[in-house]
């Protein structure tokens, strides 16, 4: 399986189709303008994808997109890519009191200078609160229009996710062979980051996770759910031969996230008890996949997974059995969250939705097995995104 | 980062809340959460959607943190003062309502927020006024404690290892990858800024930044034969009392003087912005003029350059010696 073995995508068409979906939901909800500060939202609406930097840098250098019911997307950004259809304006800095006049002007351009009506916005900064610039508007969370737009992916979006996932997989399959006793997390992270660059991707979206897991829940950190703590992102552990390591990494292609999860052992073969865990995990995956398809509710998938795990929930209770993937690494739809049974019963899968299945099976004393795979819902069932590499050294 | 430093920072925040009459402070920005509590959350790149990452209560002086486990939680926060991550706004609202002193708060400070939070706050803290406190956090953070300055200095040293990796292999196909890997070898797996490596004839232009234990390091410059071109006058101009005009007159190329500490901070001063700002002793600044970047601490005399190369004077960068 190679990273080049990917679906092709047309970025221009993808941007047009996304904007049209966003505007459809703006019109349906009578939103006069949408003001976006959160980078994945800006990327979705305008096509502008920034570098993967620390959140503090992202905040002070962030692009802003303002979208009216018609006309061009107004993008306020320095050095955006030259092929965007958006109308480009110099950066505004929504953190700075002195920049608020620029934002007022931008909203005016999108709304035709109306300062009343429903305005969708994803963040209200301190400077915005102080200025009162939003006072005349009925404010709603931008998620109300972006959420439904993002839920069903276009073919181009699916191809971007597929490409990101394949590159992520290639890099991680190489890193796996370096996960040996005496190696630190930071060394594996360095290998991953530089390998991804060699494969032509600059954006690593998450500090690479290589977390040695406890064998008993009681040996791990105290949690609110009573289950295991993951991902904690704490420290720089040194791996031992007896470790069972949960790994999780993500990169971005055209703003679309990948999500690679596996369980690794450290320079040895899995024990038979660990191998049994993997078999149970595989059974949960098979049962989930056998259920997934258009017209199926999230609850039906969740029940199939539980059924294959002797009636116990095979996922981390603070997370989910599965989550969506797109311009963010965890988005709707989500199966088995604390949104509750009712939510899962009412939510029906449709073609074009994406699910990252991430079951976890746990046997106290042995530990846990966790891995992730990405699927897109099709007209008849589902298809894999990414190359679904083997689970070595675990074997089916 | 010592627990004394965390305690001193938290004390500064609580004192500032008291001065401004803020009963509860809800922080969404991870750097503000880290400053106030010492907590390091799993790093993800880019902006994060707003969520209440921590809540400080003036009356009880307690810190309530968003976390489903006690790993990585500072000792001063007991388990019962954690509230779990959730996908359900109603559960989050219940968590907020259960925080002693929040429901009765008259003034709730926020560093940023969202329409959903404003609506939810009207229910869990009826009658409370939402007060912007991004400026409160910015002013508390602007002047650094001594230990913070040393943490930035050591973060800059880590970044030099990335510069070293670039210059020691000038023909490498992915020099940025090498730079990042070199920094991870010192435990720094998080880049802060967009890495830059560019060749212009015999000159290699490098600008790198990394987060090391919540504090940022950075350095940039034009290198020929392992020597960095001289620091521009702007670096030396970063002195107590320096105004926008002083900085502008010292600059030679496109320039930016901005706060640096737990990442990118205020003040933010460049040709267009920060006209009314004045530098103060104790500020730590990332100073860019053209391709050159240094990190300095403003003192009562000449600036303390924190991004000085961690080598003997005269040693060539990239020589490995």
* Main β sheet profile of chain A: 6 strands, mixed
Strand order of the largest sheet of chain A: 4-3-2-1-5-7
Radius of gyration of chain A: 22 Å
Number of helices of chain B: 9
The CATH topology of the largest domain in chain A is Creatine Amidinohydrolase
The stretches of 5 or more residues of chain B where confidence is low (pLDDT under 50) are none
Number of helices of chain A: 11
Kindly estimate the percentage of residues of chain B that lie in beta strands according to DSSP: 25-35%
- Number of folding domains of chain A? 2
Low-confidence runs of chain A: none
By CATH, the topology of the largest domain in chain B is Creatine Amidinohydrolase
CATH superfamily of the largest domain in chain B: Creatinase/methionine aminopeptidase superfamily
Top CATH class of the largest domain in chain B: Alpha Beta
Count of separate structural domains of chain B: 2
Mean pLDDT across all amino acids of chain A: 95
CATH top level of the largest domain in chain A is Alpha Beta
Strand fraction band of chain A? 15-25%
Structure notes:
The complex is a heterodimer of chains A (396) and B (321). Chain A has two domains: 11-150, Creatinase/prolidase N-terminal domain (Creatine Amidinohydrolase, Chain A, domain 1, 3-Layer(aba) Sandwich); 155-385, Creatine Amidinohydrolase, CATH 3.90.230.10. Chain A is built from eleven helices and 20 strands. Chain A has helices at 11-28, 39-46, 55-60, 100-111, 126-131, 143-151, 155-176, 185-198, 272-291, 298-307, 341-346; strands at residues 31-36, 64-68, 74-76, 87-89, 117-121, 124-125, 137-141, 203-204, 209-212, 244-249, 251-253, 256-257, 260-265, 322-324, 331-335, 354-357, 360-363, 367-370, 373-377, 382-385. In chain A, α1 packs across α6 (143-151) and α9 packs antiparallel against α10 (298-307). The model of chain A has no long low-confidence stretch (mean pLDDT 95). In chain B, 51% of the residues are buried. In chain B, α1 crosses α5 (134-142) and α3 packs across α4. Chain B has a six-stranded mixed beta sheet. In chain B, strands 8, 9, 10, 11 and 12 form a five-stranded antiparallel beta sheet that branches. A five-stranded antiparallel beta sheet of chain B has the order 14-13-15-16-17. Chain B has nine helices and 17 strands. Chain B is globular. Chain B folds into two domains: 3-141, Creatine Amidinohydrolase, Chain A, domain 1 (3-Layer(aba) Sandwich), CATH 3.40.350.10; 146-305, Alpha-Beta Complex (Creatine Amidinohydrolase), CATH 3.90.230.10. Chains A and B meet through α3, β6, α5, β7 and α8 of A and β6, α4, β7, α7 and β8 of B.
């Amino acid at each position: 399986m190679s990273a080049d073995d990917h679906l092709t995508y047309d970025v221009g068409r993808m941007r047009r189709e996304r904007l049209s979906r966003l505007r459809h939901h703006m019109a349906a909800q009578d939103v006069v303008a949408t003001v976006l500060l959160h980078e994945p939202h800006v990327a979705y609406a305008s096509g502008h994808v920034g570098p993967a930097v620390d959140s503090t840098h992202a905040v002070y250098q962030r692009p802003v997109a303002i979208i009216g019911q018609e006309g061009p997307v107004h993008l306020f950004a320095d050095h955006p890519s030259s092929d965007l259809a958006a109308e480009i304006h110099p950066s505004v800095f929504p953190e700075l009191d002195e920049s608020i006049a620029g934002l007022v002007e931008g909203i005016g351009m999108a709304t035709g200078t109306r300062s009343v009506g429903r305005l969708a916005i994803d963040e209200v900064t301190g400077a915005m609160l102080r200025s009162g610039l939003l006072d005349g508007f009925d404010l709603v969370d931008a998620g109300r229009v972006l959420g439904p737009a993002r839920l069903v992916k276009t073919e181009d979006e699916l191809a971007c996710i597929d490409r990101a996932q394949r590159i992520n997989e290639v890099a991680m399959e190489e890193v796996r062979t370096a996960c040996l006793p005496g190696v630190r997390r930071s060394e594996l992270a360095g290998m991953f980051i530089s390998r991804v660059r060699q494969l032509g991707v600059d954006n690593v979206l998450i500090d690479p996770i290589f977390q040695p897991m406890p064998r008993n829940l009681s040996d791990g950190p105290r949690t609110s759910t009573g289950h295991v703590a993951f991902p904690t992102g704490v420290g720089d552990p040194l791996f031992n031969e007896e470790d069972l390591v949960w790994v999780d990494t993500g990169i971005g292609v055209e703003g679309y996230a990948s999500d690679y999860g596996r369980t690794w052992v450290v320079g040895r073969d899995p024990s038979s008890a660990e191998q049994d865990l993997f078999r149970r995990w595989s059974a949960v995956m098979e049962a989930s996949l056998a259920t997934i398809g258009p017209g199926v509710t999230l609850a039906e998938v969740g029940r199939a997974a539980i059924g294959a795990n002797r009636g116990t929930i095979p996922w981390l209770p603070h997370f989910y059995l599965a989550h969506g993937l797109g311009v963010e690494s965890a988005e709707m739809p989500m199966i088995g969250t604390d949104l509750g049974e009712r939510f899962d019963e009412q939510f029906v899968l449709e073609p074009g939705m994406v699910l990252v299945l991430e079951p976890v099976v746990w046997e106290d004393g042995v530990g846990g097995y966790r891995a992730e795979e990405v699927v897109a819902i099709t007209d008849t069932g589902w298809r894999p995104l990414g190359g679904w590499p083997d689970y070595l050294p675990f074997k089916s | 980062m010592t627990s004394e430093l965390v305690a001193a920072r938290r004390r500064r925040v609580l004192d500032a809340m008291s001065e401004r009459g803020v009963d509860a402070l809800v922080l969404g920005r991870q750097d503000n959460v880290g400053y106030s509590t010492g907590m390091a959350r799993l790093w993800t790149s880019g902006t994060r959607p707003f969520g209440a990452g921590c809540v400080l209560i003036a009356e009880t002086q307690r810190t309530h943190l968003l976390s489903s486990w006690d790993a990585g939680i500072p000792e001063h926060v007991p388990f019962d003062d954690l509230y779990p991550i959730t996908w359900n706004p109603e559960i989050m609202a219940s968590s907020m309502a259960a925080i002693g002193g929040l429901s009765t708060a008259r003034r709730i400070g926020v560093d940023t927020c969202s329409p959903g939070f404003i609506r939810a706050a009207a229910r869990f803290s009826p009658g409370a006024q939402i007060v912007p406190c991004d400026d409160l956090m910015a002013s508390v953070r602007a002047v650094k404690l001594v230990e913070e300055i040393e943490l930035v200095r050591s973060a800059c040293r880590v970044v030099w290892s990335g510069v070293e990796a670039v210059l020691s292999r000038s023909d490498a196909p992915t020099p940025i990858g090498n730079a990042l890997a070199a920094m991870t070898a010192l435990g720094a797996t998080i880049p802060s800024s967009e890495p830059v490596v560019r060749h212009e004839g015999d000159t290699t232009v490098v600008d790198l930044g990394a987060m090391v234990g919540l504090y940022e390091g950075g350095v940039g410059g034009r290198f020929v034969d392992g020597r960095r071109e001289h620091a521009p006058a702007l670096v030396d101009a970063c002195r107590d009392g320096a105004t926008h005009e002083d900085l502008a007159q010292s600059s030679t190329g496109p320039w930016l003087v901005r706060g640096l500490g737990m990442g990118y901070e205020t003040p933010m001063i460049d040709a267009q912005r920060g006209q009314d700002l004045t530098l103060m002793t104790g500020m730590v600044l990332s100073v860019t003029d053209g391709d050159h970047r240094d990190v300095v601490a403003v003192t009562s005399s000449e600036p303390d350059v924190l991004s000085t190369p961690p080598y003997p004077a005269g040693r060539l960068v990239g020589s490995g010696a």
